[in-house]
Design a protein that fits this description.
GMP Synthetase, Chain A, domain 3; three-stranded antiparallel β-sheet; two-stranded antiparallel ribbon; elongated; Osmotically inducible protein OsmC
């Protein structure tokens, strides 16, 4: 798949294969809601996308300043809204930094990590269009 393009194909029940460039992953639902739990849910990937973007930016900051990323960890916790429409209500992201970073570096790392692309995309949401394509037998 070319950059910026993602394809999702049905596998079975609630499982789907996601193709991103040359990579493949499976999304599914937990078994207690009818899935086979063969992969994370799309909502979990949503939170994981933010957490991994924050981690990437933090890691790049550390590399630029000659600091090893050993011990860098990012965790995200999300909660769902209790009303409709179904959606994520809140995501909290915590960055555990490598030992030995002084206050100035910690503050700078937080500023850089907070400027990751996914975070900006959530703060200034993109226009989303969902449309139907032709049926498979019409292609």
């Amino acid at each position: 798949m070319p950059p910026g393009r993602i394809r999702v194909d049905h596998l079975s029940k609630d499982a789907y294969q996601v193709a991103v460039r040359g990579h493949r992953l499976v999304v599914d639902q937990p078994s207690d809601v009818g899935g086979d739990d063969t992969g994370p849910t799309p909502t979990e990937l949503f939170a994981a996308s933010l957490a991994s973007c924050v981690a990437f930016y933090a890691g790049r900051y550390l590399a630029r300043h000659g600091v090893a990323a050993d011990g860098l960890r990012v965790e995200a916790q999300f909660t769902m809204a209790t009303d409709r429409p179904a959606r994520v209500a809140e995501v909290s992201v915590t960055v555990d930094v490598p030992p030995g970073l002084d206050t100035a570096r910690r503050d700078a790392l937080l500023a850089v990590a907070s400027n990751c692309t996914v975070h900006h995309s959530l703060q200034q949401p993109p226009t989303v269009r969902i449309a139907l394509g032709p049926a498979l037998d019409e292609r």
